[in-house]
């Protein structure tokens, strides 16, 4: 932003956070069932279950990471908005 002013845009931060997680449910609901049915092999269920459990665990960790990052974006934006207000008040001599 030009003109010697400072501004923090919470809407932009919220939008960035939302974009980060907007398709997370679809991504994390990935199913290996259709893949396993496409090439059934006798005795593969044990291996398929191990793989399915590992993928599910990894996707859960991915969800936690992205949700944490999205919240961090919002938290940082809140801090910037607060600092902007404090700086503006200081410059204007408000609350001194």
Explain what the structure shows.
By secondary structure, the protein is mostly helical. Helices cover 74% and strands 0% of the residues. Helix 1 runs antiparallel to helix 4 (45-92). The longest helix is centred in the last third of the chain and has 48 residues, at 45-92. The radius of gyration is 23 Å and the shape is rod-shaped. It starts with 9 loop residues before the first helix and ends with a helix. The mean pLDDT is 82.
Indicate the topology.
Blueprint: H1 10-21, H2 24-28, H3 33-38, H4 45-92
Summarize the structure.
With 96 residues, the protein is an all-alpha fold. The chain has four helices and no strands.
Give the DSSP E fraction (strand runs of 2 or more residues): under 5%
Q: CA-to-CA gap between the ends?
A: 27 Å
Count helical runs.
4
Radius of gyration: 23 Å
């Amino acid at each position: 932003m030009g003109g010697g002013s400072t501004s923090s845009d919470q809407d932009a931060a919220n939008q960035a956070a939302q974009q980060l997680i907007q398709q997370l449910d679809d991504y994390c609901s990935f199913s290996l069932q259709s893949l396993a049915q496409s090439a059934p092999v006798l005795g593969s269920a044990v291996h398929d279950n191990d793989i399915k459990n590992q993928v599910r665990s990894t996707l859960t960790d991915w969800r936690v990471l992205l949700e944490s990052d999205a919240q961090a974006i919002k938290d940082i934006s809140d801090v910037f908005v607060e600092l902007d207000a404090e700086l503006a008040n200081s410059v204007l001599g408000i609350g001194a």
